[in-house]
C-alpha cells in the first residue's frame, strides 16, 4: 500500500471508490510489479492495442464508479476519439469513446 501511495494520480470517485492512474512508464511498470489485492486493473481489449497509462480501481466499486473509471482510464490513452472501445472493469464491460482528461480534474485527491 505504501508503494502505491507514491505512484500515479490518485482519484476519489463519486460513490467512494479509489482510482489510481499511472503518470508515466515508470509508474505503470511499478504499479504492475507490485500487485495490490485491494484493486482491480482497468483493462482494454488486447486487439485494440491501446497505448497509455495503466489504471486501477478499488475492488467492489459501484457500477457507476466502474463506468466512470472506464472513461477516465481511456482518457489517459492515445486511443482515437473517433472510435468506441471495450473497457473491462472488475467483471463489467463498457463500450465507450475516449473523452478529454478534463473529466478527471474534479476527482483528484489533493
Please give a structural write-up.
The longest helix is centred in the middle third of the chain and has 13 residues, at 63-75. It is built from three helices and six strands; from the N terminus they run αββαββαββ. The protein is globular. It has one domain (2-107). A six-stranded antiparallel β-sheet has the order 1-2-4-3-5-6, with helices on one face. The two termini are 18 Å apart. β5 and β6 (92-97) form a beta hairpin. The chain is an alpha+beta fold and 110 residues long.
Radius of gyration, whole Å: 13 Å
Strand order of the largest sheet: 1-2-4-3-5-6
Largest sheet: 6 strands, antiparallel
- Residue-averaged pLDDT: 95
How many helices? The count is 3
Termini separation: 18 Å
Query: Could you list the spans in which at least 5 consecutive residues all have pLDDT below 50?
Result: none
Tell me the total number of β-strands. Answer: 6
Q: What general form does the structure show?
A: globular
